Amino acid sequence: MSEIERDIDADQQADEATALTDGFHLLIKALKLNDLKTIYGVPGIPITDFGRMAQASGIRVISFRHEQNAGNAAAIAGYLTKKPGICLTVSAPGFLNGLTALAHATTNCWPMILISGSSEREVVDLMQGDYEEMDQLAISKPLCKAAYRILYAQDIGIGLARAIRSAVSGRPGGVYLDIPGALLGQVMNEAEGIRSLVKVIDPAPEQIPAQHAVTRALDVIQGAKKPLIILGKGAAYAQADDLVHEFVETSGIPYLPMSMAKGLLPDTHELSAGPARSLVLKESDVVIMVGARLNWLLSHGKGKQWGAPHSTKFVQIDIEPTEMDSNVEIVAPLVGDIGSVLSSLLDGMGNDWVKPSVDWTNAIKDKKEANIARMAPKLKNNNSPMDYNGALGALKRVVEEHPDAMLVNEGANTLDFARSIIDMYKPRKRLDVGTWGVMGIGMGSAIAAAIETGKPVLCIEGDSAFGFSGMEVETICRYNLPICIVVFNNNGIYRGTDKNESNGGDVATTVFVENARYDMMMTAFGGKGVHAINPDGLYRAVTDAMDSGRPTLVNATIDPAAGKESGNIGSLNPVSVVGKK
To answer: Quick one: which of 129, 264, 456, 574 has the most CB atoms within 10 Å?
Structure first.
């Protein structure tokens, strides 16, 4: 090496020894190192510059109008990708807005990380009245799977690694990561900072079930006369699609998909028991739960929709041991990840496996055919104003013709009717309100579905549900996303016909502005707005939107009297007996 080369090398080493980095750059590098390249959020103090810098570095930053919608997008991103969806918010009120979505993700077992700026500990702990002062870490802990705070730049790498592993390992869920404003500006040696970053290896390792548990489960299943498989959204999240398909067809057992598991096998599959739901729940003697939980959506395994109390035996596949026996006895618990458990069951079934009797499968087939035939003419009506059957019959055709498209669905009647009427053909194409049954997930879910999959999105909303996140139509137009929103407009919550029983002049609490034109909202932001008054017009408008990829909102006029109280869960509303005899 020449003297000049030695001098250059010495200068480079000196530069490396004195080069500095800061919290901004380290957090961005840590995200990219772990292949987390999309952030959903709302900019503001103290994270505005972080968003700008992340975008400049190549991370896609999708800026929303409200943090809850950004959080719902991050939650769905986690569900679709099995990597933590990232939501970025400002402190205090912004954090609280995002916290609802974080709790929603945790309840649904979807991996998500909420990163929020916050006030400094020394100010918060003494309650000295800082800007948007709040002990965000303490508030978040009861509502998520884990919560961490990073105080020093050299801990950013390990802090994010802990958040990632917590979000996706075991039962996935939401994680809160607290970022005090001063952390982002902390300076340290660049080389040391780079060395402090962590790439998470195997964050969600396989969990193999015990062999004796597999043998016990197979004995219970083989002894059934009327077995049933229930597929939950956990089975869809697992992305073990081929194994699910093989298990159903090898076992020969009819299956009932919960709403977000629709499409794991096509709803038109010969073993699908969806159109015979009441029959199979009432008469099944052994039920195999695959990524589904015996919560309120299944009457806790002991409601009226089931047979005689405690007559049904349950086999449950779940990665969380404490889920077993949560409502009723689980006679054959299988603890492990769905892929590993199904592989073990298939290995144990062998060539001498006896499929269910044709009496059972034919009874289901007959019930399905009768119910489908009964519904068919209702779905083909062209009434104006529309009822739910005619409108959803039109959209059923659209989905059948666009099986790769994403479907987002929320509302009361709009949700209840759609999940039974619209068939799905491929896995993870249907996104809805999930375990909590909350409203307001629509726009966030639709945006994430478009961003993460690149597919066109059909978002079917009740007018009440749309109101929770409708301002995000501006976000959809701003990013020119291929989303078609259909608002089922019946002038109110459940129905638009309720009356105020007092002498006051206010409208009833469930009634909205009559004949509102939601389509004009989309037009205002440069998208396409359409007003549909009958199923034929609705079909044409939505087909055009799905084919064009242009942001579109279709205001679908629904008969104000067509709905019913709380969809199919009106019984959960308490009834006053005061004054009754």
So the answer is: 264
CATH, residue 469: 3.40.50.970
pTM of the model: 0.94
More confident residue, 472 or 123: 472
Q: Which two tokens stand for residue 190?
A: 């660049």
pLDDT per position as a tens digit, 301-326: 988 888 776 689 999 999 999 999 99
Write out the residue range of the structural domain in which residue 537 sits: 380-557
Q: Looking at the 3D structure of the chain, how many domains does it have?
A: 3
Question: For residue 565, what pLDDT is reported?
Answer: 79
Identify the burial level of 464 via C-beta atoms within 10 angstroms of its C-beta, where 0-12 means exposed, 13-18 middle and 19 or more buried.
Answer: buried
We report the CATH number of the domain holding residue 291 as 3.40.50.1220
The pLDDT > 90 percentage for the chain reads 86
Q: Do the Cβ atoms of 20 and 154 come closer than 8 Å?
A: no
Residues 6 or more apart in contact with residue 302 via CB below 8 angstroms: 309, 310, 327, 328
User: Quick one: 130 and 160 in the same domain?
Assistant: yes
3 state SS for 92-123:
CHHHHHHHHHHHHHHHHCCCEEEEEEECCHHH
Helix (H, G, I), strand (E, B) or coil at 563: coil
- 546 lies in a domain? yes
User: Residues 336, 404: one domain?
Assistant: no
Token reading at 84: 């933590």
176 Cβ contact partners less than 8 Å away, ≥ 6 residues apart: 99, 102, 113, 114, 116, 136, 137, 140, 141, 144, 146, 147, 148
State the DSSP string of 331-348.
SEEEES-HHHHHHHHHHH
The reply to whether 563 falls in a domain is: no
Domain co-membership, 435 together with 532: yes
Q: Which two tokens stand for residue 561?
A: 């009297």
Q: Are 28 and 59 in contact (CB under 8 A)?
A: yes
Q: At 129, which amino acid appears?
A: G
| d(C-alpha 66, C-alpha 488), whole Å | 23
193-245 pLDDT, tens per residue? 999 999 999 999 999 999 999 999 999 999 999 999 999 999 999 999 999 99
pLDDT digits (tens, 9 = 90+) for 144-173: 999 999 999 999 999 999 999 999 999 999
Alpha carbons 3 and 498: distance in angstroms, whole number: 91
- How do strand 20-22 and strand 187-189 relate by DSSP bridges? antiparallel
DSSP 194-255: HHT--PPPSSS---PPPHHHHHHHHHHHHT-SSEEEEE-HHHHHTT-HHHHHHHHHHHT--E
326 and 215 assigned to the same domain:
yes
221 and 360 assigned to the same domain: yes
Quick check: is 562 in a domain? no
Residues 123 and 230 in one domain: no
